[in-house]
């Protein structure tokens, strides 16, 4: 058995210099493809990003553009898949040997499998067993009418992505993805508005708005980008 896997990327995993070693060791970024995905700016970050906003998956969001980068190691067992998830989470937390695939405070690694491919049941079963052992796994909020983003067995509840060029389904068997917990506020709960997102960047050090500009440099965009660009101070 050999399965081809990739990482569905939104945001800085693709370009942050602090993740370069992970990209070099685990990905073939030369084969990355732009794909459709329901994404938006929705999570308020901490001090490292100046309390500005980063991207999240949102089932009610209009389709944006993410990137899929192929894993450079084939998946031949459940252990291989879990290793890729562990390395992905280390890249997210900028910490080695965490032994985790989740942080109850802000997100987790989830899995997508190609519905047109035959994925061995023991792989999916082992994944479900692994996420069951993870403290606080799957605590990624959505609005009431969106439904759960991540299932109990660790599956991201969105459609299998299609390539922007040609609209063909991504030609891989499995995708791993980091799902971040959005910052929902108000009554009823809602995602931050474009104004809120832009004001956070405009009020912070200009280096933090590079998150937005770098995403667009790499083709990662949301349905909000045109409005954001119109209100965001010029790139320095």
Describe the main β-sheet briefly.
7 strands, mixed
How many distinct helices?
6
Order of helices and strands: EHEEEHEEHEHHH
Terminal Cα span: 50 Å
Structural class: alpha+beta
List keywords for this structure.
7-stranded mixed beta sheet; 236 residues; alpha+beta
Description:
The chain has helices at 20-26, 78-93, 121-132, 194-202, 210-217, 225-231, and strands at 5-9, 27-44, 53-57, 63-71, 102-103, 107-113, 174-180. The protein has a 7-stranded mixed sheet. The radius of gyration is 17 Å and the shape is globular. It is 25% helix and 22% strand. With 236 residues, the protein is of the alpha+beta class. The protein starts with a strand and ends in a 5-residue tail after the last helix. The mean pLDDT is 95.
List the helices and strands and how they pair.
Layout lengths: L4 E5 L10 H7 E18 L8 E5 L5 E9 L6 H16 L8 E2 L3 E7 L7 H12 L41 E7 L13 H9 L7 H8 L7 H7 L5
Parallel strand pairs: 1-7
Antiparallel strand pairs: 1-4, 2-3, 2-4, 5-6, 6-7
Helix pairs in contact: 2-3
